[in-house]
Amino acid sequence: MIKRFLTVMIMMLLLASFSVSAEDKFRIVTTTSDMQNLVQAVAGTLADVTAIASPAQDQEEFQPRPTDILRLKNAKMVVRVGLDYDLWLDRLLQEAGNPDLLPGGRGYIDASKGIALLEIRSVSFGPSIGHNHGAGNPHYWLDPENARIITASILEGLLKLDVNHAQIYEKNRTVFLSRLTHEINGWTGRLARFRGVPIIAYHNSWPYFARRFRLNIIDYIEPKVDVPPSTAHLVELLTEMQTQHVRVIIKAPFEPTRTPGLLAGKTGAKVLELAPSVGVIAGKDTYFSMMEYNVTQLVQAFSRAD
Questions:
Q1: Closest CA to 63 of 84, 88, 45
Q2: Which terminus, N or C, of the chain has the lesser number of Cβ atoms within 10 Å?
C-alpha cells in the first residue's frame, strides 16, 4: 500500500514538474518565419517561438493586429529582421509596453547586427513611392552564410536571459552550423556551372543569394520597390532579355503573375516561383528545406535552358 502511494506521489510530482516546465518555456516572438526558424534552431525545445507576420504575404507590408500586442507583452525576447523591413514592429513594441523588448532592452535582438549589408543608400526624407531600402537591402537571410551571424546574435540574446541552459543553446547552434556548412558546400557545387547566367527577378529580394552563388540578376520587373513597371521599362526588359538570352524569371508566389507571364511569352523564358522566406512554399517550412527548394528549382530550370 505504501509502495503504491509513493509511486502515485512520484508520478504526480513528475506531472507537476512537466506542467511547470511547459508553462515556463521561454516565450520568444519574431517578426518573420525566417527568424522564427533560426531561433528554434538555437533554442530548441526550451522556447515557445512564434512569428508575427505570415510568410504567405509580403512581410514588409504586414498590417499588425491587436493580438500581436498581447504576444509581445508576455514575451521575454523579440527578434526582428531590422533595417527597413519590419518597421511596423516599432509601434507594436511601444504599445506593448514591455521595457525588455524595446531597443537596448535585455530581450531585444536586431538580427541585422554584424551583417555585411548590400545596397546601402542615403535615406530620403522627402515624399517617396514604395517602401525605402535606404538602410541596406534587408533580405540578408537568403545568403546561408549569414545564418551563422544571425544565430550568433540569437545565442548571445538567449545567454543574457537564460545562462543556466547555455550548454544546450551552444550545442544546438553547433549542430545547426555543422549541417549548414555541409549544405552550403552542396548548394555551391550544384550551382557552380551556372555562374554568370543572366536572370530577371520581379522584386529585389535576391542580391545576397545571388552574391553567394555568383548568379547574375541583370534587372528587376519592379524598377523601384512596390512600383509597377511602366511601358518604357517593359520595353527595356524585353530588349535586355532578348540581347542577353535570359531564360529564367524569378518571383515569389505572392507577387503578380501578369507581367512575368507577358515577358515569358515574348521571350520563351520560364517563370520560376522561389521562396524568399520559410513557409512561402507549402511544405518548405524550415530554413534548410527553403534553401534546398530554391537551389533545386534553379538547377532544374537552368539545366532545361541549356
A1: 88
A2: N
